[in-house]
Design a protein that fits this description.
Layout: H1 2-18, E1 26-28, H2 39-42, H3 54-61, H4 65-68, E2 75-77, E3 86-93, H5 113-122, E4 124-131, H6 136-146, E5 152-154, H7 162-168, H8 176-182, H9 184-193, E6 209-213, E7 220-225, H10 226-231, H11 240-253, H12 270-273, E8 290-293, E9 296-299, H13 304-318, H14 334-339, E10 345-349, H15 350-357, H16 360-364, E11 369-371, E12 393-399, H17 406-415, H18 419-426, E13 434-436, E14 442-444, H19 446-449, H20 456-460, E15 471-472, H21 478-481, H22 484-494, H23 512-538, H24 543-556, H25 559-575
Helix pairs in contact: 1-9, 13-23, 15-22, 23-24, 23-25
Length: 579
């Protein structure tokens, strides 16, 4: 694969040198191209070197040409991307309620300054079809059934049978040739992330374009009201027994309705379950209970560790440490509850620690929060899962069969992976939301960082481009949203010992037969398991007395068939070629 990309870049460079005006073609930036290299275009997105140091360039000049091609120069597009104004429709989730007021007059991505700016720069207008997060799955199925497809579709991973079946059913197109021939910037990013295997199916087809993270860090974990901990002279716990004692002390000391914020996903974070050698276990998402151990796929739903985990959650529920109505609470409500003195511990992003601690209204009442260590069952325990939420590759977007100009659409998406395009998606509009400093690095403007009565994150929302896959600078907010408390949180969580030995790749694809069997069985398995889990936590079922019958029922509903399908997909993933 990498050889094909090197060849593609060489052809693009030659094409650019032979073209009088440069046209709209993508090309590596070099003296032979006719693309104007403005200051913005020459500047790398954070974490990416625009070119090799001079001594490396001199050394490489003496090497064979094939070696030089392995370190291609950044791709630069001449703007606009098209001389004919074009609109593409994008099917995506609507902004959460707390975000929408800051996007524009109608709370839509369509009215955001970033969307209008992108159209002016590129000649391409993104027309968003925004679906409420809570009803996305239902509306997605209705859209598919109607046959009226938008140009760009998110959520196809939830299609019955997955991406491959969606292609076979004529919903989306195969993007393999487009990626290899028309997306040089995306290919460079895949090379840098060594992520080819994670964006293709078992047949080597690429059916979606994925956002790629600049690096993987653990920036989400448990957060505690440190002001309360200090007032009660409490030490930060490192194991689950310590958590129980901390929760009781916080609840009794401040007359809280409950100590820990849990929502309807049941397990708030893998940073809670990993200490039991369990995966993320998001009960609102199918398949999150699968993992692999020594190459064999297993399900946490029937593991002894999961039984012990449920016993702990039941103990916390019985003690009042979890809300009696946790199964009706929404994850997005956590900030209001935590900052509103409604609980003592939640799971949150590191940058929100700084946001809360620098809030004048919260500071007036003495509010102060900080990260807690990720709990384990034993001192010195090594965990077995990646603790970061997204990894290197994020959810993909697909081009539908209804798209009348897929060439321009993939070109538009590829632009989003260039340094210039990534700046639009990470930092927004040059001169308004960010400026380049003397070192050629983007920095937020004072207009973004000093808005009275409004947080930095809220201020920048309208300027940051949404809707396209891109190269994500995971540290883009750090200069404004990370103080020593946030940096401490990332360091604390990221330094948790883990060998990641039980990780199961997300880029698994079923055959049509496997998909049919899996889809038939998994709903019954997970529906029954989720109902049982709730009764165990609330005490309506005695875990010790009912566990064996529960496990037998789960197996009888077809769990083994689901494991077998996942095992086959995992083995094909391992043998998947990147060449």
């Amino acid at each position: 694969m990498k050889n094909r990309i090197a060849a593609l870049l060489a052809v693009l460079a030659l094409t650019a040198s032979l073209t009088a005006c440069g046209g709209n073609a993508a090309a590596p930036a070099s003296s032979s191209t006719t693309v104007d290299k403005t200051e913005e275009q020459q500047t790398s997105a954070p974490g990416v070197e625009a070119s090799a140091p001079a001594e490396e360039q001199e050394a490489s000049a003496a090497e064979p040409a094939s070696d030089v091609q392995e370190v291609p120069e950044p791709v630069v597009y001449e703007l606009p991307l098209t001389d004919t104004p074009t609109t593409f429709t994008v099917y995506t989730t609507a902004a959460p309620g707390f975000m929408s007021p800051y996007l524009g007059p109608d709370g839509s991505y369509n009215s955001a300054e970033s969307t209008k700016n992108f159209a002016e720069l590129t000649g391409v207008t993104l027309q968003f079809i925004e679906i409420d997060m809570m009803s996305f799955s239902q509306n997605f199925n209705l859209m598919i059934a109607s046959g009226d497809y938008p140009d760009l579709i998110s959520g196809v991973d939830g299609y019955a049978g997955g991406y491959t079946k969606a292609m076979d059913d004529g919903v989306i197109i195969d993007l393999t040739d487009y990626v290899e021939n028309d997306m040089p910037a995306y290919c460079q990013r895949l090379d840098e992330a060594d992520a080819w295997k994670d964006v293709m199916n078992d047949e080597g087809q690429m059916l979606a374009i994925y956002s790629l993270n600049s690096e993987t860090i653990v920036d989400r974990g448990p957060v505690v009201r440190k002001d309360w901990m200090n007032a009660l002279n409490l030490e930060e716990p490192t194991d689950y027994d310590g958590w129980t004692e901390m929760g009781k002390a916080l609840m009794n000391g401040y007359n809280l309705p409950y100590a820990f914020y849990f929502s309807n996903v049941i397990n708030p974070s893998i940073t809670l379950s990993a200490g039991f050698d369990l995966p993320g276990l998001d009960m609102s998402a199918s398949g999150t209970h699968f993992y692999q151990k020594d190459g064999q796929v297993e399900s946490a739903l029937v593991s002894d560790n999961f039984k012990d985990f449920l016993s702990l959650l039941h103990e916390w529920y019985a003690l009042g440490l979890i809300s009696k109505d946790f199964f009706t609470q929404q994850s997005m409500d956590v900030k209001n509850v935590f900052a509103g003195d409604g609980c003592g511990v939640c799971w949150d992003n590191a940058d929100f620690i700084t946001e809360d601690n620098t809030n004048a209204e919260l500071a007036a009442k003495g509010f102060y929060c900080t990260a807690l260590p990720i709990p384990t069952r034993e001192e010195g325990q090594t965990l077995h899962y990646s603790l970061n939420m997204d990894g290197a590759v994020q959810a993909g977007l697909c081009v539908s069969t209804a798209c009348e100009d897929p060439e321009l659409l993939v070109k538009t998406m590829d632009f989003s992976f260039t340094d210039q395009g990534a700046l639009l998606s990470n930092y927004g509009i040059d001169g308004i939301s960010y400026e380049m400093n003397a070192e050629g690095k983007p920095r937020w403007t004072e207009a973004m960082t000093n808005v009275e009565g409004q947080t930095f994150r809220a201020t920048i929302l309208t300027y940051i481009l949404n809707g396209l896959p891109t190269y994500v600078d995971v540290k883009k907010y750090w200069s404004e949203t990370f103080d020593e408390d946030s940096l401490y949180a990332v360091e604390l969580w990221s330094d948790t010992p883990t060998d990641k030995a039980y990780d199961l790749p997300s880029a698994l694809f079923f055959t049509s037969e496997e998909s049919s069997v899996y889809a038939t069985k998994i709903t019954d398995v997970e529906t029954y398991a989720n109902e049982y889990i709730l009764t165990c936590i609330t005490g309506d079922a005695d875990i010790d007395a009912t566990w064996d019958d529960y496990a037998e029922k789960v197996w009888s509903l077809g769990l083994q068939d689901c494991i077998d399908a996942t095992q086959n997909a995992y083995e094909r993933y391992l043998s998947r070629s990147e060449a």
